[in-house]
Amino acid sequence: MSSDYYSTLGVARDASAEDIKKAYRKLAMKYHPDVATEADAADRFKEIGEAYEVLSDPSKRDLYDRGGDPLQSGGMGGFGGFSGGFDFSTIVDAMFGTGQTTRGPRSRVSRGQDRLERVRLSLVEAAFGTTTQLKVESAVVCTTCSGSGSADGAAPVTCQNCHGRGEITQVQRSFIGDIRTSRPCPKCQGFGVIIEHPCPDCYGEGRVRASRTVNVKVPAGVTTGNRIRLEAMGDVGLGGGPAGDLYVELSIREHDLFSRHGDDLEATLEVPMTAAALGSRIEMPTLDAEREDIEPEPDDVAVEVDIAPGTQTGTRVVAKGKGVPRLRGRGRGDLGITIVVKTPTELDDGQRELLNKLAEIRNEQTPVLSAKSAHKGMFARLKETFGG
Question: How far is CA 272 from CA 340, 343, 346, in A?
Fold first, then answer.
């Protein structure tokens, strides 16, 4: 027995289990025979392993603290003197922190995977909400065996290859002793039990692939990138285990008239040149006019836009509360309308004559460069001259 296991690992006698594990991990990586260059590396590695074997086991550590020898009388199933060999996977767990402190058969029943599906909506559906049907192909409980995986309904039997442990152990001799490594049993795939007569439909998994239709309720105000979580609507787990969740990711199609900016809508209204010059009043349809789920109020389907005499291209008016309902809050965004004055491109002789008379009356036969425009041009030219 080592004179002082605590000194071997370089920890205090009241060190926690985590401190002992960290100290062992550091020293084991330093003195491992595969990487160490010191002549006594193998001996040091044995001592470190022996110390960790004792101090990491509460019962052995207690016996050692009371002056006993925890490695005497066949109590050495692990590191002691390496005469009985050791479990190599224990070293891996301690050195690399895999956290596999307990081993044994895996459960045949496990939670299923989450699924992600994508749905495209119109702007109207996204703005005011809708319920859409989504066809999903996923894993569902096998109806033939009700998830048991067994054709005759019998319970799984213990695997005779691993005797129910779910893993098999191999022993290899080395210069530091016998090394035992464990791996999942190839016969039962680590479950420790075997289904003797698997279900012919699911082949013992307890689940099958099937198509189903899911109703997805979309709240008002969603936008591209939003996800809706449907709990336990994903894939059913192995052995008929609980289903994962279904996530529905939304994307919104472009609209012919409106563009969306957050909760606001923007639209362009083309106005004839004569209407812009003389003034007019035009009814602009809103997004509410396209709703099919309800009959909108008359005041909601359109807004009146007053075109003041002399309106210029770029003039913007705002219809308050005619945008998109807020997803997490009250009220709605606004509808912004930008006016574009439309100049005629084709004139008949009569129209051309009338416009010529108007230009003559207004003395507008020749375009005039305004002082403001000339001022801007001068600074632009100065900027070009000095390379600004």
Answer: 9, 7, 13
Q: What is the separation, in whole angstroms, between the first and last Cα of the chain?
A: 84
* Structural contact between residues 216 and 248, judged by C-beta atoms closer than 8 angstroms: yes
pTM (2 d.p.): 0.65
What's the Cα-to-Cα distance from 117 to each of 247, 250, 294, rounded to whole Å? 6, 9, 28
DSSP string, 87-138: EHHHHHHHHHT-------PPPS--PPPPEEEEEEE-HHHHHH-EEEEEEEEE
pLDDT at residue number 73: 47
Contact 280, 253 (CB under 8 A): no
Angle at 238 between CA 230 and CA 188, to 5 degrees: 165
For the 5-96 domain, the top CATH level (class) is mainly alpha
Q: What's residue 60's pLDDT? A: 83
For the chain, give every domain's residue range.
5-96, 259-343, 348-388
Profile the chain (388 residues) by mean pLDDT over runs of 10 residues.
78 89 85 74 83 85 78 46 45 50 73 95 97 95 94 90 88 69 89 93 94 96 97 94 96 97 97 94 95 89 95 96 93 97 92 92 79 54 54
Contact present, 132 and 119 (Cβ < 8 Å): yes
Compute the distance between CA of residue 36 and CA of residue 38 in angstroms, rounded to an integer.
Answer: 6
Fold for the domain defined by 259-343: HSP40/DNAj peptide-binding domain (2.60.260)
CA distance 195 to 149: 7
